[in-house]
Amino acid sequence: MDTFDLQEELQSLSDGPASYSFDNEVDISSLDPSSIAHEVLDPAVEALAHNSDNITEPAVFDAYRSLLKHAATLQGTHMTKILDSISSAYQAQVEATVRDVDEEDQQTFMVHKMPLEMYAFLLGWFVNSAAKVKAAGEEDTPTPAPKAKRGRGGKAAAGSRGAGRKAQDEWSWADQIPGTLALIAKVLRLKTQRIWQTTGERDTFIGCVTRPVYHIAENEQYMKSAPIRLAVYKAICLAVKHQGHGLAAQITIMQALQYFEHLAEPMADCLDVLAKEFDHSQLGDEILREIAGKSFSAQDSKGPRVFSKFLIRIAEQSPRQVLKQLALLLTQLDSESYPMRNALVEIIGFIIRELSEVPEGEDDGDAPNKSQHLKQVNGLYDLLMERTLDNSAYVRVKVFTTLARLCDGSSKYPQQRLAMTRAAVDALEDKTSTVRKSAIVLLERLILTHPYGMYGGYLSETEWKEQYKEVSEMLAKMEGAVGKAVERDEEEGSQAGGGPGEEGGDTEPEDEDDEDGARRKKGRKSKRDEDEMDVDGGDTEVEEDEDVEMGEDSEDEDAPRRRKKKGKMKARKSEINLQALTNEAAALGELNENQHLEVKLRKKYCLDALEFIRQIEEGMKTVQRLLASKTKAEVHEAMEFFRICYEYRFDAAEAGIKKMMHLIWAKDNNATAEDGRELKSVRSKLLECYKSMYFEPVMNLDAKQQINRIAKNMIEMTYIATLAELTSLEEMLRQLMEEGSIHEDVVNKLWQVYSSERPLPRAQRRGAVIILGMLALAKRQIVSDRLESLLKTGLGKLGSADLTLARYTCVALQRLNGSAKKVKGSLLDKSLRMDMDNSLFKRLQDTIERPCRSKEWFPMAEQAINTIYALGERPDLLCSKLIKNLTRRVFGRKSDACASSQEPKEKDPDAMDEDEVDPDVTQQSQSQAQSQSDSGKDTGDAFELSQLLFVVGHVAIKQIVFLELVEREWKRQKHEKEIAEKIGGAGAAKSKEQEELDQVAGNAEDEIGERIAGMREVELLYGAHSLLATFGPMLVHICGSPHKFKNRTLRAAATLAFSKFLCVSSQFCEAHHKLLFKILETSKDPAIRSNIVIALGDVAVSFSSIIDESNDELYTGLRDSDMVVKKNTLMVLTHLILNGMVKVKGQMGEMAKCIQDTDERISDLARLFFSELSTKDNAIYNNLPDVISHLSVGAHAIDEDAFHDTMKYIFSFIEKEKQAENIVEKLCQRFRLSEEPRQWRDIAYCLSLLPFKSERSVKKLIEGLQFYRDKLRDEGVFERFQEILQKARANKSANKPDAELNEFETILDENRRQGAEDQEFERNVQGTKAAAKKRQTRRTQRKKPVARNDAEDSE
Questions:
Q1: Distance CA 653, CA 657 (A)
Q2: What is the CA radius of gyration of the chain?
Q3: How far are the Cα atoms of 560, 567, 577 from residue 495, in angstroms, in the given order?
Q4: Is 991 helix (H, G, I), strand (E, B) or coil?
Q5: Could you tell me if 844 and 864 are in contact, meaning their C-beta atoms sit under 8 angstroms apart?
Q6: Which residues have a Cβ under 8 Å from the Cβ of 983 and sit 6 or more positions away?
Q7: I need a labelling partner for 512 at 20 to 30 A (CA). Which of 537, 766, 1042, 1296 fits?
Q8: pLDDT digits over 877-912, tens only?
Q9: What's the per-residue H, E or C state across 1137-1199?
């Protein structure tokens, strides 16, 4: 072959092998495999084996071209032989070329030009064909070659023939690729610039050689193989480094990134190899610059994602290289596409990490470089801080993830960490849960890697304040020593210059600059005080204590401060005191300057630590709220955050630890998967956190110390705990006990603390019995085995001195009944009942009857009565005796006891705990002592009456419960009798006991129920022999006569007992429930009002028909000034409404008002109520018109901003499209009846909250135009309709009525203009009327004098 134009051949082949033609083409498809081998392939192979230059022979070259054109029909053996022959000959030609080029004989090495081009052409064609053969073989299963192509992992079909396996062994293109790429790499080492004289020819050849490399890289499976991947990198790097392939490689790589997503990271790795191993970073720089100049659309998802992965990988591998182009790349921070902004955030993170990890030895460089280095890092951190405000949540998440990784670096950057902490705390308020979760993770990393480990590593604000105070005092002392040395020398050399107390020195600094003057006027200590106040400014809880400490410090250092102040001022006078200067220099020389600098740095260190602690504690308040999040991952991170804070001893962590305890009631109890990892249930995570904090052993403690520590932790959980916290703690400890997480030795230690004879803090002993009672819920034996200890300690001498201890002992005793819950409809009763002769009941009776003046008696008596009814066979007998004894104590003393208890004049009716010391008053006059004694007797009688009424009321309510148990027991016995009759036969003789039972219980369960109901309804409060019946009229009299019974405790006890009586009998309730509402309305005691609200809830459950008549009065508590009353009212109404106990008749507006309440607890409860109400069918939809009317107009209306916030929350529950359509119609009709502009705006705002997703909603809005046409002149109304228009247009529904919307917009604008014209015309008319009236007035005034003058003239 005389000539071979590589460019022309490549162009012809690019159109496809089918259209590629040449002279000596052989139709391979018509030949069988043996003919192909013998007639075509073997002669060509032999020719090349004889001499690699034979490729230029037309017959040989055309034979290979014919084979490759029909490669799809070839077998694996053919392909292997073709590749081997071409590779061997190509390699021989390359080696010959290298030898000839080295000899520098141009005539000799130019001969190799055409063979090299032909081999490059054939090899490139073969690589393309090999891939196609593989693909075709996979589809063509009957042929042997396809069998061989079933993956290179060796997973061929088990039943394949031996010939198929042999073919597979003979041909596998993936196995041949590394050798092929190695050959290409050898070619690329040629000195091509000497063979191809023109750049165009050379670039064509290099392009032909590298094209197979890029083709192989396009296959994702091939690039997963490390040998192939590294060979691809090597070939590209050689082409770029030695063959001037840079521009072509840049274009190819950029195209590859656009079309092949899997090449993002391999191409970045290739550029890294090129820069590091081949010392050629120019290509990477050019590609980075080109990417920096690209523009990415927000709608394009694939392109930005690939380029971002590429940038992240190259920044991870070569951060220094990316740093050089960072200024250009930063333009992508403003890209519309968030993946690119994400990539830039990660790039900045990698660069910061690279700059932070300076090798040892570079730190000691010159100061300017170090300053520049720090400035660079600070600038990059600032860029990350700006991105925390990005409008994409994905970017914000990436920022916090990147910052969290940076926390693990060796360089801490305290100031940047403080900025990161502030940003994370702010992000806790983000609207996206993933951002909030990432912010919590960052805070955790900041705490775990904090640099403040000088004083043990803990982060207690109290401890750090002490350290700061100590360092400040040390610094003031060191600096004060210098001033003292100077003062002594001055006093010796300037005796004629005035005494030590001369006033001139004190006033001179006023002429100096403000800062120095202030320091000299107040001394060094004042500077330290300012620092302390700056630090403490955010903590109001400790301001008073710190002010006292600062005052004491200033007194202690007052004298040194004056001496130092005077000395320094004299040193700054215009008359230079050389002696003082010399002495001061000597004093400074004596001072250890390094130590002085160290103390100053320690002070700054403490300030930073305090700032960090306060920022974290500020964030804790928000994280507490996030514990209630609906996102499980967020709740998990919040719990982990508080666990970490607890370990680092943050002072404010305890509040979060207590709040997260309530998550024990979380309904979610299943593990889920998120981000590739398993998420435990919330309850499991909570138990894990608590076990880690309180129950897991710590290092360096023996077994006894571990038990003491765990017991102490459990007891401390009860300190200052609310009822809700104790309830949650009880459930948590029950579950831990059931799991076996609490060791028996810990329980024994708790018993030891409880029953110890040594004097212990009351809270500690109380905590022990509280925990024991909680654990006994899971294991009854904990209490039953130590019953004597409970009676001896809690109901003995210690219990009489500490009524709270006795109260919790009674709670523990109730656990003897176990914790088996009553199954609805079941007659089974597993409770334990004791005989009334048991010493336990005698102890309980004595505890209640023991004379006492403490208000702690009431909760103790309540639990004691609960214990009697929980454990006794006949509790009513013991309680009857108890009531009689208390009654004798109240009324059996003196004949005038009742009169004295009603004495209206009391000095202090609430000072009952002090009654015991009243008789000891001997220093006052006889009359005063007598009056105090009278007051004491009056209060004593009132208190004993309060105790009696409290017991009576509680016994009444417990007797109802007991009657229900009796009813269940009767039914159980009857059921067992019926079963026995069925088994024994209907004709079996009845025993005497069975006959008696039938007489009592009747022959049907209905009779049993009626009998018990009759006891409750009539006999308890109206029976002739009822003990409680005696107290009904007394309670009505006391509650109805507040002017007579003014003692607060008596009134509270009487009201509580009266409320309980109302729950017993419908007859009593019907007669007296109005009195309870009257007390609620008139009582000034919030405790009484709060109790009444709760009682009304119970009464409503018992007798709903009676309370329905006074339904409106249930809601009055929502307007109460006391927050506790308001909260209790809301809770009671929530329970009653959600459970269908009361009917809502237009009062939902009052509930809606609470959504915007200033008290966060009330607001949260109201939101919870509407959230739960939304699960009821159409409940919110049905009450929505009443809510709007209630809040918009009338006496109950709220301001517009609050109305907007409230309705926005409520409308979020309107999700059904049919409901939205009906609301549109109803609200449009409301415009017709409204006259106030405020109502128009409110209705329009409510309309704007609807989604308008359907065509029908828009049509109903347009149809209602006649009702609001004239209201559009109001600017607020028009703006809301514009919002509705935009929302309707944003709807992507296929049936969106665009034409009608355009027409509607025109109508809106026209009516707005018309309304404005009407308003203007009306103003003009009004102005004309006013002007006419004014002119008429002037004429009348002018006529009056004329008429008067005429009258005078006539006279």
A1: 6
A2: 47
A3: 20, 14, 13
A4: coil
A5: yes
A6: none
A7: 537
A8: 999 999 999 998 888 754 444 444 444 333 343 333
A9: HHCCCCCCCCCHHHHHHHHHCCCHHHHHHHHHHHHHHCCCCCHHHHHHHHHHHHHHCCCCCCC
pLDDT profile of the chain (1355 residues), mean per 10 = 76 78 76 79 85 83 84 81 88 86 71 85 86 48 36 38 42 84 89 84 89 90 90 92 89 90 91 90 91 86 88 91 90 89 92 76 55 86 91 93 89 86 93 93 93 86 90 85 53 44 38 39 38 36 36 38 38 51 58 77 90 93 90 92 93 90 84 68 91 87 90 91 91 91 92 90 93 92 90 90 93 80 52 84 92 91 93 90 90 52 39 34 35 42 90 91 83 79 59 55 59 72 79 91 89 93 88 90 91 90 82 85 91 89 82 89 90 86 88 85 91 87 88 85 90 82 83 82 82 65 77 67 73 77 62 57
- Cα dihedral 705→711→713→714 (10° resolution): 170
Q: What is the residue type of 251?
A: I
Q: From the CB of residue 1176, how many other CB atoms can be counted at a distance below 10 Å? A: 12
CB 659 within 8 A of CB 610: no
Relative orientation angle of helices 1200-1211 and 1237-1248, to the nearest 10 degrees? 30
Contacts of 832 (CB under 8 A, 6+ apart): 816, 817, 818, 871
Per residue, the 3-state secondary structure of 645-699, as one string, reads HHHCCCCCHHHHHHHHHHHHHCCCCCCEEECCEEECCHHHHHHHHHHHHHHCCCC
Region at 1156 (left for phi over 0; alpha for psi -120 to 50; beta for the rest): alpha
Classify the C-alpha dihedral 659-662-664-666 as positive or negative.
negative
Is the distance from CB of 581 to CB of 571 less than 8 angstroms?
A: yes
pLDDT at site 592 = 62
* DSSP-H helix ranges across 494-577: 504-507, 514-522, 524-536, 543-556, 558-571
Other CB atoms closer than 10 Å to residue 435's CB: what's the count? 24
Question: Which of these, 981, 976, 983, 974, lies nearest to 1005 by C-alpha position?
Answer: 974
3-class state of residue 572 by DSSP: coil
> 1204: closest CA among 1315, 1316, 1279?
1279
Q: How many alpha carbons lie under 13 Å from residue 581 in its C-beta half-sphere? A: 7
Phi-psi map region of 458: left, alpha, beta (phi>0 left; psi -120 to 50 alpha): beta
Q: What helix, strand, coil percent values describe the chain, rounded to 5? A: 75, 0, 25
Residue 425: closest CA among 613, 609, 622: 622
Please name which of 1268, 1348, 1347 lies closest in space to residue 1315, comparing C-alpha atoms.
Answer: 1268
At 953, list the tokens.
Answer: 């009321």
